[in-house]
Amino acid sequence: MSPDYQLVAFDMDGTLLNSAKDLQPGTRRAFEAMRAAGTRIMLASGRPIPGLKKLASELTLGQDLVLAGMNGSIVVDQATDREIARHPMPLDVTRALIATAKKHHVMVMIPHDDQLLVEDSSDTHAQHEAAGNDLTIRDVADLSEVDVQPTKVLFVGERDVTDPLLDELTRDYGDQVELAYSSPLYLEATAAGIDKGSAITDYGRAQGIPLSRVMAFGDNGNDIGMLRTAGLGVAMGNGIPEAKAAADLVTTSNNDEGIARVLSRYFKFDTSDIPA
């Protein structure tokens, strides 16, 4: 008999990872229980695929994960290394977004396959992003003339400069792109209709898993699509109000076994050390 949920998707920062950037003990036991039940585990992140592979290895999460990187615009089955979906942004739209960002003096980074395209490789944000995601920095003289078709564009800056950019991009290109904050510093753009929710749909369609048999956990703006799409969307107690409003239920925080408390209702594992 198949489990109630055949796919469980997790955002990373603020959700699967606690404040120490590790998994809670109950979550690790839940992973073992899901695998034993035959349920697939998806890591859904703004990170590129190389970054997700690096993080999964460092956290010893196994080699049988589904990786939904770049806010769901690329989906890879880690066990077979098969790319299930890729949704590039139209090049003309990409260039227009970047030109608008430059007008607002907002830094732009483009993760593409195993590279990070930037105009200033010495920038600390670029160096941090590349090192953390196993990417090679590629200097580009003018990103608004980019010569690759990326699946995500990343805008970097404090909210006082990125909020006006978001307003203009939403007004002028809101029907052509998805725009969401993944952190206070990162505003991210993907093609219209492409987000972590579409990643769940892509994988479910490829594997014959109905959305009603999918559970998703998230905490931030770029998780909202996933929380709405999954049969059961769970927002973390530390999540933003918009994520909680999009979810079917709200659990405790990423530091208080919020994931294990929910998964223990559907999978059998030891919860004796988790306070009621």
What can you tell me about this protein's structure?
- With 276 residues, the chain is of the alpha/beta class.
- It has nine helices and 14 strands.
- The chain has helices spanning 25-37, 49-58, 91-103, 124-132, 159-173, 196-207, 224-229, 241-246, 258-263; strands at 7-10, 40-44, 66-69, 74-77, 82-86, 107-112, 115-118, 136-139, 153-156, 177-181, 186-191, 214-218, 232-235, 249-250.
- The strands form two sheets. The protein has an eight-stranded mixed beta sheet with strand order 5-4-3-2-1-12-13-14, with helices on both faces.
- Helix 8 (241-246) links the parallel strand 13 and strand 14 (249-250).
- Helix 3 (91-103) packs antiparallel against helix 5 (159-173).
- The longest helix has 15 residues, at 159-173.
A few lines on this structure:
This protein is α/β, with parallel strands linked by helices. It is built from nine helices and 14 strands. Strands 5-4-3-2-1-12-13-14 form an eight-stranded mixed sheet, with helices on both faces.
Helix count?
9
Please report which band the strand proportion falls in: under 5%, 5-15%, 15-25%, 25-35%, 35-45% or over 45%.
15-25%
The radius of gyration computed from the alpha-carbon positions, rounded to a whole number of angstroms, is: 18 Å
User: How would a crystallographer describe the biggest sheet?
Assistant: 8 strands, mixed
Overall pLDDT:
96
Distance, first to last CA: 29 Å
Structural class: alpha/beta
Taking strands numbered 1, 2, ... along the chain, how are they ordered across the largest sheet? 5-4-3-2-1-12-13-14
Q: What global shape is seen?
A: globular
* Count of strand segments: 14
- The topology string of helices and strands comes to EHEHEEEHEEHEEHEEHEHEHEH
| Residues in helices, as a percent range | 25-40%
Low-confidence stretches: none
